[in-house]
């Protein structure tokens, strides 16, 4: 088949006008185009570095082949290099470089490397198994079919090249069609595979066979999105990076179905929209996804922007790019540029967003962002992160999730997966979720009691888990945001035996951390943050050297504050976080106050109900937190002169509030 014949029959239609898109990126996306041209030139020179935005396992040292390419080469102990190499995302860069320059070297390289790979990497050869995992086969079908769009006027795409391409596309489709079971139904692998099958079927000459592949791919994808995506829009594996990869695939499916008038299940359309809204919900103010589970610090606004265009959603437009970026325009085409620009942005004023089924709550207050998690593990890509929170303010991360770093089953994998890598609590310095290997756990911990509420200027987030029932402890965390950078944590440990309890706060690497008599301080050019703690007994604190990973294979040194208490029976720890700009620091104070029964005239024990006083400048609050039922018979509490009822109550004492207060939880 000639390239012109292929161009007429292919139904891959992401690009409506290649040259118009090329003109747009040369005019409006020059910085990104420069990066892509560098990648393309490296590929021409057989130098491979995986550093594109959505490269799932990034590398930082190029691998160069001076002779023929060894497609199964593994430069270290991590098979992920082989997997990433055999996905060929970099061929899309060759295509984009060709579209923008018309330099035939890019087309020649694509044709040569593709034909070489097909000739030498055989699916039936056991030695090629790492190149022929089903997930790689699915990803290849996206990257190969999209790449070919760019070269259809190139003389390097000969009839022989087209035949090799279509022969391999057909083989991939046959293979992907054969891969289907309960694992693929539930895993992101299934989506990536069947997205590949769907695109392969559209690249093949239309026939009864290709139509059957299209129909079956859409059937499987409908089942997968229904079982994998919660009603709040979150993909169940609790990893924003894999959530976004799955969302990307479904956005492709919705787009192709619209343009080709293909019938698809309503569930695909509805839940793809929900997935984009979930991405918007947890997006940090700098446009990146949180490093939750096996995720990297990636600017995810291309996903949100594509969702805005496809669903005509101004809320997504406000969270996305003001104009289509480099990646979006190649996937959506030239006509989408003006359509996206015409779409009005609808800025959301919502402070609290709750993703109930997945157990995620996000609080936004101007530039301050806090994300709390108390949901399911999410299988292999999930981390031991129940009750963890992230904090972003003043244009930077303050408290971070340590990230993932590697998938190799060695010490570093567990260093970043374990409870101690997260801003959560432990009992006796033991993990509440225990890893068996890189993907499986020998001990799990079900979430309990996740809830979140906003009343007036305050938000309260709460959760617990079953991770320490085997040692007779139930941990419970309550986070109260008081506004203007004041955040109070209440960590309670319900038990009747002797234990030590630890709280971890992982600071971003961008600042200096110092433990003093006046609290722990994080100082950066943007921020000065003070951390204070108090408890019914003594608190031991120390700052230890730890590591964080913004991207796979990347490490940075940071500091972690560990606060520890030791009790027989009930234990609790209050932590106040006071966030200021670096040049506007005002010291804060935190102290416990006694809580009395107005009816019985007795002092409540700490295991019943506690209260703290929070002060900073002109701000003053009394916050009451109950750990169990306490009102018997009819009763109210008196906390430092404040009378009220409930399990979490805030009094703005600076405003003279002494009665009722704001009851956040009953």
Strand content: 25-35%
The share of residues in helices is 25-40%
- Indicate the radius of gyration in whole angstroms: 27 Å
How many domains, in number, for the residues? 4
* Outline type: elongated
* Mean pLDDT level: 97
CATH architecture assignment of the largest domain: Distorted Sandwich
Q: How many individual β-strands?
A: 29
**Based on helices, strands and strand pairing, what is the structural class?**
alpha+beta
Q: What count of helical segments does DSSP give?
A: 18
Gap between N and C termini: 71 Å
Strand order of the largest sheet: 11-12-13-14-21-18-17-16
Largest sheet: 8 strands, antiparallel
Instruction: Report the uncertain regions.
Output: none
Q: Which fold does the CATH topology of the largest domain refer to?
A: Beta-galactosidase, Chain A, domain 5
GO cellular component, one term: periplasmic space
Domain Heparin-sulfate lyase N-terminal: 5-303
InterPro entries: Chondroitin_lyas (IPR008929), Hepar_II_III_C (IPR012480), Hepar_II_III_N (IPR031680)
GO molecular function: lyase activity
What does this structure look like?
By secondary structure, the chain is an alpha+beta fold. The protein folds into 4 domains: 172 residues, Glycosyltransferase; 120 residues, no CATH class; 215 residues, Beta-galactosidase, Chain A, domain 5 (Distorted Sandwich); 81 residues, no CATH class. 34% of the residues lie in helices and 26% in strands. It is built from 18 helices and 29 strands. Strands 11-12-13-14-21-18-17-16 form an 8-stranded antiparallel sheet, with no helix packed on it.
């Amino acid at each position: 088949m000639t390239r012109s014949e292929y161009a007429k029959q292919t139904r891959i239609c992401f690009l409506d006008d290649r040259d118009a898109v090329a003109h747009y990126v040369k005019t409006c996306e020059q910085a990104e185009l420069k990066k892509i041209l560098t990648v393309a030139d490296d590929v021409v020179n057989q130098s491979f570095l995986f550093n594109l935005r959505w490269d799932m396992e990034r590398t930082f040292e190029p691998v160069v082949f001076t002779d023929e390419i060894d497609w199964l080469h593994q430069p270290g102990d991590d098979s992920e290099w082989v997997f990433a190499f055999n996905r060929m995302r970099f061929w899309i860069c060759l295509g984009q470089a060709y579209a923008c320059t018309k330099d035939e070297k890019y087309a020649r390289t694509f044709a040569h490397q593709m034909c070489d790979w097909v000739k030498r990497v055989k699916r039936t050869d056991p030695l090629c198994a790492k190149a022929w995992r089903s997930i790689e086969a699915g990803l290849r079908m996206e990257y190969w079919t999209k790449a070919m769009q760019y070269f259809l006027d190139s003389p390097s795409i000969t009839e022989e090249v087209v035949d090799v391409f279509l022969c391999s596309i057909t083989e991939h489709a046959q293979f992907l069609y054969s891969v289907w079971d309960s694992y693929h139904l539930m895993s992101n692998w299934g989506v990536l595979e069947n997205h590949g099958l769907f695109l392969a079927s559209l690249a093949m000459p239309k026939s009864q066979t290709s139509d059957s592949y299209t129909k079956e791919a859409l059937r499987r994808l409908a089942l997968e999105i229904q079982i994998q995506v919660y009603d709040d829009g979150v993909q169940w594996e609790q990893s924003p990076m894999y959530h976004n990869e799955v969302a990307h695939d479904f956005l492709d499916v919705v787009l192709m179905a619209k343009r080709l008038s293909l019938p698809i299940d309503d569930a695909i359309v509805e839940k793809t929209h929900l997935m984009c809204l979930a991405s918007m919900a947890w997006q940090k103010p700098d446009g990146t996804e949180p490093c939750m589970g096996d995720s990297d610090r990636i600017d995810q606004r291309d996903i949100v922007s594509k969702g805005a265009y496809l669903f005509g959603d101004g809320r997504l437009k406000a969270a996305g790019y003001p104009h289509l970026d480099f990646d979006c325009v190649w996937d959506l085409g030239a006509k989408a540029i003006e359509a996206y620009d015409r779409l009005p942005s609808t800025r959301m004023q919502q402070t609290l967003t709750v993703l109930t089924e997945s157990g995620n709550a996000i609080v936004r207050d101007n530039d301050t962002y806090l994300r709390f998690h108390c949901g399911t593990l999410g299988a292999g890509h999930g981390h031991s992160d129940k009750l963890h929170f992230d904090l972003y303010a003043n244009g930077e991360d303050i408290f971070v999730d340590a990230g993932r770093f590697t998938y190799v089953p060695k010490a570093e994998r567990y260093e970043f997966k374990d409870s101690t890598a997260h801003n959560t609590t432990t009992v006796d310095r033991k993990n509440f979720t225990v890893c068996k290997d890189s993907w499986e756990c020998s001990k799990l911990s079900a979430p309990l009691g996740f809830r979140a509420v906003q009343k007036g200027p305050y938000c309260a987030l709460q959760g617990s888990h079953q991770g320490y029932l085997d040692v007779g402890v139930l941990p419970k965390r309550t986070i109260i945001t008081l506004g203007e950078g004041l955040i109070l944590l209440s960590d309670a440990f319900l038990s009747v035996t002797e234990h030590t309890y630890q709280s971890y706060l992982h600071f971003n690497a961008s600042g200096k951390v110092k433990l003093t008599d006046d609290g722990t301080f994080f100082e950066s050019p943007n921020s000065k943050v003070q951390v204070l703690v108090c408890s019914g007994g003594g608190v031991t604190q120390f700052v230890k050297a730890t590591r964080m990973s913004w991207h796979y294979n990347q490490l940075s040194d940071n500091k972690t504050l560990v606060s520890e208490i030791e009790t027989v029976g009930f234990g609790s720890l209050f932590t106040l976080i006071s966030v200021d700009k670096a040049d506007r620091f005002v010291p804060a104070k935190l102290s416990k106050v006694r809580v009395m029964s107005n009816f019985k005239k007795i002092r409540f024990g700490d295991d019943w109900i506690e209260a703290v006083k929070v002060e900073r400048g002109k701000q003053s609050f009394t916050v009451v937190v109950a750990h169990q039922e306490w009102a018997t018979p009819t009763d109210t509490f008196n906390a430092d002169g404040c009378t009220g009822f409930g399990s979490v109550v805030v009094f703005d004492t600076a405003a003279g509030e002494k009665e009722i207060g704001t009851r956040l939880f009953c």
